[in-house]
Amino acid sequence: MSRTPTGGMLLCRTEPLAARSPAHLLRVRLLLAPAGTWTVLVPEAKPWLDSGVSVSEAFSAWASAISAGTSWPVLALWWEGGRAGFSLAGGLRRTVAQEWDAAGGPAGEAGAMRTLAARLGLDPVLDLEELERLTRPDTEPGVDGGARLRGLVALLTRAGLALPPGLAPGEPADRLRGAARVAPGAETVEWSGWPDAVRAELDAVDAGPLGPWLRGPKARRLGAAQVAAAAPLLLWAARRRSPGWAAAGALLLAQGTLSLAYDRARARD
After folding, report:
1. What local confidence, expressed as pLDDT, does residue 143 receive?
2. In degrees rounded to 5, what are phi and psi of residue 76?
3. CA of 229: how far to CAs of 233, 242, 258, 259, in Å?
4. Cβ neighbours of residue 121 closer than 8 Å, sequence gap 6 or more
């Protein structure tokens, strides 16, 4: 009896460093690799076999968990028994999903492709037309859900997606895992406790646009300036018996002190 391919992957529209910290929180051993301007995540094992949920439910839940609290979208791709689909999650935005049956027939929610195009910044005319073509019934033989999903991935190259060799929708999970292991820049992401998860999150923050103001020479200068400005402000507020200015001075002092303490603590790490 032939076995039908089952598998899935998560596509994060961000760099690996930013995707690494929320991926830790899934408590699932994952392989992470750059995919153009995206990051791809492939599970090392098949946790859906023991969790009692379908492949689509598992990957959709992971996408929602990773995207929570982020500003970038996460696309979950899954396939099983000729069926295939995706779900698009992004922070507090509503998750949208599209599915195809084993004959390539659409079974998704209305407007999913339009939402996908809008959130990924695709062309609202040309790209959207090609996306919506994937949701029309097709009598062409051999067009199953996996073929539809591969058509979607081909269109996403216009949004900067470049999957490593061997990582393609419709491949068995074992083959995906093997391809992810040898992908350029690949690394393993594994839950190792809350301290490491917090440290990974801080690393991501430090590497972001606010990093220079949270750690380093700029952060130290800013913290010292806040502490220096707070002292005369608190003295002035005490003489004037002004609770409002006293609160402002206390807040300024707290921010400066915390900034200096954070920089020192991170330097020790």
Report:
1. 76
2. -100, 125
3. 6, 17, 15, 14
4. 159
| Domain range list for the chain | 6-198, 210-268
Cα gap 216→221, rounded to integer Å: 9
Summarize pLDDT for 210-248 with one digit per residue, the tens.
445 455 666 677 677 777 877 787 787 777 776 556 666
User: CA dist 151 to 59, 147, 211, 224, Å?
Assistant: 20, 6, 38, 55
**pTM score, two decimals?**
0.72
CA 186 to chain centroid = 16
pLDDT tens sequence across 27-38: 788 999 999 999
Other C-beta atoms lying within 10 Å of the C-beta of residue 210: 11
Angle CA 7–12–15, to nearest 5: 130
Sign, Cα dihedral of 128, 134, 140, 142: positive
